[in-house]
Design a protein that fits this description.
Helix 4 crosses helix 9 (287-293), helix 7 runs parallel beside helix 8 (218-229) and helix 11 packs parallel to helix 13 (407-425). The chain is an alpha/beta fold. The mean pLDDT is 96. It contains 13 helices and 16 strands. It folds into two domains: 6-33 and 332-425, Aspartate Aminotransferase, domain 1, CATH 3.90.1150.10; 51-328, Type I PLP-dependent aspartate aminotransferase-like (Major domain) (Aspartate Aminotransferase, domain 2). The chain binds pyridoxal-5'-phosphate (PLP). Pyridoxal-5'-phosphate binds at residues 97-99, 102, 131-133, 203, 208-209, 237, 239-240, 270.
Length: 426
């Protein structure tokens, strides 16, 4: 397939090896993986502990059909994940990629309502600027024109409701005000259409592919309450923001208050859950949803088969990843890492073309005011020249490095960002 022919073409960089945050090419050049290889890598490339766990797993079981059979890593992983949700999401469904997790959550929501006799609930809601994957079903709840428009005739698009993106604050408004305003938009929509709506799907706290749009947890609290009031499932897509990215293990945890938890009906995980090693996705759900399917009739069962469902190696990589979280107290260490990341980009807040420098946990982003349609490619190239892999989304520059990045590497990334910005704007 030929893409970006001609002068827009970017060099393809064959990678020979990788270690920690560094990617090494065949010409002896290195690049700091500032975006965790599309947000998947948590503990560095070729992590010795994950490697060792995989080596051992390889000697025992690489894969087995997960229909009628099961295995220890998948059982253990399901139990560990369920514990991490405080036991509220006690059922796990496995697939191999994020878009499939979205598809599964949508299908399961629709089918659970149908099994309960609520056959009119056939529609979904998503936020403006949302991204939940690029299969035909996932595109229905994705609101990014670049990925969606070409396939519009194939898609049964969900309705969109206002984004709580804090950048939309009007004069005098705080991020919480924007969240409340967006929630009022959701309420108005649900008042009119709730009978037909099966689920609302959201990316908690950061709409990543839509341009690292960050928002206040208040929105999740209000959305949860509205979903309860109008009998609509809440799907939290934590494919990108889960596994510690935003400062808590699950992003939606930040919406809990002393009096009230804020749990979704479906939680989608992928990307970082296997440490960035192997394709794996999981949809967790509640007893109530599970019970809606518990029946002898096959047609009432949830059918969604993938050949590599619950792959033993991928589950083992996930278990090794979760073990590192426990053994190293990663979330606490990430607090100080996040502060250093903030300090490394802080001088850019003064740059006359930089807007909305923002951060949540191990994600930091800013927007660049430029009319140059080629900005992101020019920045990407300039960053490569400075030994860094940073891929802006349009005019939004962001960093999302692995959690093992050290002080020196953070400085390297900060300098590469500032240098690439200056060159791309020259
Ligand atoms: C929030 C979110 N959902 C779903 C997906 C799709 O995941 P995958 O690329 O594994 O299909 C992504 C990928 O970036 C994502 O960020």
């Amino acid at each position: 397939m030929k893409q970006h022919a001609g002068s827009n073409a970017l060099p393809l960089i064959p990678i020979a090896s990788a270690k920690g945050v560094w990617l090494h090419d065949f010409d002896g050049k290195r690049y700091l993986d500032g975006i965790s290889s599309w947000w998947v890598n948590l503990f560095g490339h070729c992590n010795p502990r994950i490697n060792a766990a995989l080596r051992q797993q390889l000697e025992e079981l690489e894969h087995v059909i997960l229909a009628g059979f099961t295995h220890q890593p998948v059982v253990e992983l399901s139990e560990r994940l369920s514990q991490l949700t405080g036991g509220t999401l006690g059922h796990c469904f496995y697939a191999s990629d994020g878009a499939s997790a979205t598809e599964i959550a949508l299908k399961m929501s629709f089918h659970a309502w149908r099994n309960r006799g609520r056959t009119e609930k056939q529609e979904f809601l998503c936020l403006e600027g949302s991204y939940h994957g690029e299969t035909v079903g996932a595109l229905a709840v994705t609101d990014v024109a670049l990925f969606k428009d070409a396939y519009a005739p194939l898609i049964r698009a969900a309705a969109t409701v206002p984004t709580p993106d804090a950048r939309n604050a009007k004069d005098g408004e705080t991020a919480i005000d924007v969240a409340r305003r967006a929630a009022r938009g959701l309420e108005r929509h649900l008042e009119q259409h709730h009978q037909r709506i099966a689920a609302l799907i959201v990316e908690p706290l950061i709409q990543c592919a839509g341009g690292m749009a960050m928002y206040d947890p208040e929105y999740l609290r209000l959305a949860r309450a509205l979903c309860d009031r109008f009998e609509v499932h809440l799907i939290c897509d934590e494919i990108a923001v889960g596994c510690g990215r935003t400062g808590t293990f699950f992003a939606h945890e930040q919406a809990a208050t002393d009096d009230q938890s804020c749990k979704p009906d479906f939680l989608c995980l992928s990307k970082g859950i296997s440490g960035g090693y192997l394709p794996l996705s999981i949809v967790l759900t509640t007893d109530a949803v599970y019970d809606a399917f518990y029946d002898d009739a096959t047609s009432r069962g949830f059918l969604h088969s993938h050949s590599y469902t619950g792959n033993a190696l991928a589950c083992r990589a996930a278990l090794a990843t979760l073990a590192i979280f426990e053994e190293d107290d990663v979330l606490a260490a990430n607090h100080s890492r996040a502060s250093k990341l903030a300090a490394s980009l802080a001088p850019l807040a003064e740059h006359r073309q930089v807007r909305h420098l923002r951060q949540r946990g191990m994600v930091i982003a800013f927007d660049v005011e430029t009319s140059d349609a080629d900005f992101s490619r020019r920045f990407y190239r300039a960053a490569l020249d400075r030994e860094a892999l940073i891929r802006p989304i349009g005019t939004t520059v962001y960093l999302m490095p692995p959690y093992i990045i050290n002080d020196e590497e953070i400085t390297h990334l900060g300098n590469a960002t500032a240098g690439a910005l200056a060159e791309a704007l020259r």
